[in-house]
Design goal:
By secondary structure, the chain is an alpha+beta fold. It is 48% helix and 19% strand. It has three helices and four strands, in the order αββαββα. The longest helix has 23 residues.
């Protein structure tokens, strides 16, 4: 029987805080990122422009993301995500968004 245990739920706040801090550091020098919102592990990364193409770019890099309101990257990682997977998420998505930003500046 698979059940959601208290230690999984307790770790969500810490993982979410780590994830927000990691993205904040990763995007500190990228002006197109206007806000990073977080509640638990749910994340919203607000860009200053439409970014729907990030869905396909992320999928090609091994991530499943969603873009809402045309310019918000929405992340809903599983509560049981481990530290290696969190690092992969941050590193990979940061590279995908940086590549997108570069391509926007040099069409």
């Amino acid at each position: 029987v698979n059940t959601l245990t208290d230690d999984v739920v307790d770790g969500v706040a810490d993982k979410g805080a780590w994830l927000k801090e990691a993205f904040t550091r990763s995007f500190a020098d990228l002006p197109m990122i206007t806000e990073i919102r977080q509640r638990g592990l749910m994340m919203g990364i607000q860009l200053d422009r439409p970014c729907a193409e990030l869905v396909n770019r992320a999928r090609e890099a091994g991530l499943l993301i969603n873009v809402t309101a045309a310019s918000v990257v929405r992340l809903l990682p599983p509560l049981v995500i481990n530290d290696d997977e969190l690092r992969f998420l941050v590193d990979t998505l940061a590279q995908v968004i940086r590549d997108f930003a570069r391509d926007q500046e040099n069409p």
